[in-house]
Amino acid sequence: MTDWQTTELQAALVNSLVDQSQGQASVNFGPRLLDNQGTPTWLTLRHHLLTCRRFCFSVAFISDAMVSNLKPLLRQLAAKGVKGQLLTATYLNFNTPKVFAELLKLPNLEVRVAAGAGFHQKGYWFDHGAYATFLVGSANLTAGAMLGRNQEWMLQLDSRAAGAFTGQFQQLFARQWAQAQPLTAA
C-alpha cells in the first residue's frame, strides 16, 4: 500500500467512524453504506471484480440472471489469471440445478456448498493486494438484489491486508470452506 493510500484509508476511517468533522472523507476508501437505489450494487461488485487479484463470495441465493451477468466477466478475469471462490448453499432450495451446472462451467471459480441448514450469508471479499474490500449486507447474487429492483443495504469496508477485519474474514471463510462440499455435476 502506498503512503498516499495509507493516509487516505486513515482519513476515511476517522471521518466515517470517529468524527466526520475530522479530515476529509476519502472517495476511495472507508466505510460506505450502499443502498442499491442510486447505483446498483452490481456496478460496485463489478468494479471490485475488475480491479482485484482474487475474490471470495459467500451468498445463500444465486439466480440464473446473475450467473448470466457473471459469466462473461469471470471469463475476462480468467484471461488475467484472477480466480475466486464461491460458498453457497441449498437453503430453502432456492439455487437451481441449472445455476449449479452453469457455475461448474467457470474455470476460474471454485464452488462449494455449505453444510447444514440455515446458511443465509451475503458477503463479498476482494483482494486488492495491500488492502481488501468487503461488501457485507442484505444482497444475494440475484438480479433483484444486484440490479436495483430490491431495496438492499450493503456495507462496504476497506481493510489493510494485515488488518484485524481481514484476518477475521479469512479465518471464518476458511473454516466454513473446509466444512463445505465441493460442487460437482452429481
Give a quick rundown of the structure.
This protein has helices spanning 3-18, 41-51, 64-79, 97-104, 143-146, 164-179; strands spanning 32-34, 54-59, 83-88, 109-113, 122-127, 131-137, 154-160, 181-182. It is an alpha+beta fold. The N and C termini lie far apart (43 Å).
Main sheet overview: 8 strands, mixed
User: Which regions have little confidence, pLDDT < 50, spanning 5+ residues?
Assistant: 15-20
Which structural class best describes the helix and strand composition? alpha+beta
Distance between the termini: 43 Å
Strand order of the largest sheet: 1-7-6-5-2-3-4-8
- Basic shape: globular
Helix content: 25-40%
**Mean pLDDT over the full residue set:** 84
Q: What is the quaternary state of this protein?
A: single chain
Total beta strand runs: 8
Rg is 17 Å
Summarize the helices and strands and which ones pair or pack.
Blueprint: H1 3-18, E1 32-34, H2 41-51, E2 54-59, H3 64-79, E3 83-88, H4 97-104, E4 109-113, E5 122-127, E6 131-137, H5 143-146, E7 154-160, H6 164-179, E8 181-182
Parallel strand pairs: 2-3, 3-4
Antiparallel strand pairs: 1-7, 2-5, 4-8, 5-6, 6-7
Report on this structure:
With 186 residues, this protein is of the alpha+beta class. The protein has 6 helices and 8 strands, in the order H-E-H-E-H-E-H-E-E-E-H-E-H-E. Strands 1-7-6-5-2-3-4-8 form an 8-stranded mixed β-sheet, with helices on both faces. The longest helix has 16 residues, at 3-18. The radius of gyration is 17 Å and the shape is globular.
Task: Write a concise keyword list for the protein shown above.
186 residues, alpha+beta, eight-stranded mixed β-sheet, 6 helices, 8 strands
